[in-house]
Amino acid sequence: MxxxxxxxxxxxxQMGSGHVMRCATLADELRANGATVTFVCRDLPGNYIDWLxxxxxxxxxxxxxxxxxxxxxxxxxxxxxxGVSLEQEIAEVNGVLSQYPxxxxxxxxxxxxxxxxxxxxxxxxxxxxxxxxLADRQHECDILLDQNYYRDMQSRYDDLVPASSMKLxxxxxxxxxxxxxxxxxxFRLRDGTVRRILVFLGGADPANETxxxxxxxxxxxxxxxxxxxxxxxxxxxxxxxxALCEEDENYQYHCQIDNIAELMLAADLAIGAGGxxxxxxxxxxxxxxxxxxxxxxxxxxxxLENIGALKIIGESGKISSHQIHEALNECIDxxxxxxxMSEISNSLVGHGAKRIQETIxxxxx
Length: 365
Prior knowledge:
Blueprint: E1 4-9, H1 18-32, E2 36-42, H2 49-54, E3 58-62, H3 86-97, E4 103-109, H4 115-121, E5 125-131, E6 143-146, E7 166-169, H5 178-183, E8 196-200, H6 209-219, E9 226-231, H7 238-246, E10 251-255, H8 260-266, E11 269-272, H9 277-283, E12 288-292, H10 298-306, E13 311-315, H11 321-331, H12 335-348, H13 352-364
Helix pairs in contact: 1-13, 6-11, 9-12
């Protein structure tokens, strides 16, 4: 009998698209192995519901917030990302899921949800899996996935999940879309020379760090450089970024594309964010300069920098185009450093979606 999976996750301008994107990768792998998958997503500004539907996923749409829930809420720290109170969230999810047979597994990937939600919703699924990387709240789950690298990753959830929980930890479980798995078959050895740069600072980039990077690259006055600039459909600054790219024939503008792995293969250096794109670049051995876009990206990025897997050039909202330019000038000709970044980051990353799918199915047997 086919396994039935339900996934609770969201995207918005505030939280970006990473949660939905990594869950969609896992959903595709589950579906390819015979499971039926249903998403539960709230209709927030910048949501990816239509994108999920375009990928032929079933989506239960939770109502848009009538009034913003503000920035309040002591616990969890990201509670306001729900857009509604926790009580309303639980009531709505109870209401929609009660119309379905019990699912085999529920997957939750949301910084605003924790053990209280999981206990009250657990009756709708035989097993509960949580995707997290903050390690800042309690979870009631059978499986915990954290695909990020941390110096203390083996112990950071010891007091946050039941002792019986299975923990899938580290970028060996990275949720990579099939395009990256295919792209690795066309892997090319880089020589450390930078001729082409990929700029992608997340699906939303609310602080418009992308425009700062474009200005910084132009300050280099290296007219031979080719630059691919990628933005998501939820980026509120995309028209201005497109206009900047159109001023220079060496810049190519890309919006909400499905071939970013191809651009990573072509690039010699990336300027990007933390989060799940770290593992996509690492899997294809693309050296990266990082702008930390959110607080939750900082610890993992600094731990990776400490082992030489990337270089942090600043934090969103605090870095200027001139500072980005200075950081680029310092490292763009350092071939040995860039090649070392490639090797170290590549050594960390595995094909996680398949491993996780097999774990879920084995757990359900």
